[in-house]
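Appendix B. Chain record.
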Amino acid sequence: MADEPKEPKPPQVPTGDQPASSTPPVSAPPAKPAGASAPAAPAKPAAPAAPKPPVVLQTPLDNEFVTRFRAKFGAALIEAMQDRKQSILTVDRARLVELALHLRDEEKFDMLADLTAVDWPKREKRFDVVLNLYSFAKNERLMVKVHAAVWPTANWQEREVFDMFGIVFAGHPDLKRILLPDEWQGYPLRKDYDILQQDTAWVRENLGIESGQ
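Structure tokens predicted for this chain:
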């Protein structure tokens, strides 16, 4: 009787070897280098800077000169202040001539450098008359608010203030316009003076043009 055919046996795999797999191997993630750290967190925005303190322009003035002046005239010195290194005295109008003579003769503020005015339309006492004094002996400047006629140059400067603001200086020997024609109407440096509404009649008559051209 013939032998029956034998089934073929699978090939023997050598010990230690594994059959090849059809699935590709999965690679492991690369190892982190030694000492590596996590990414830094984003920096926090800087805190806003503290607001700067307000600039103080005016401070009380209380030096030897003011002490001496107040001791002599008392309440006639209404206010003493310093504004950006400028000394300013506000004085009683009723005693102005007496105060001005003292400043000129005793404190040696011998030059009236300028006399001008400031218009405050909404204030009860509308105008400030301002004298800018200078001392040659001390090389100092002083601002006095109001007016006086104890310096010769005040004659023309008071006329200019009258011309521009319409402020009347009692006792002035010749108070009339000095910059504008005598017939001019209005006061150009007042806050309510509209440059386009100037003296139209004078302009038309003397310049032959319409006001505001």
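Further analysis of this model is presented in Appendix C.
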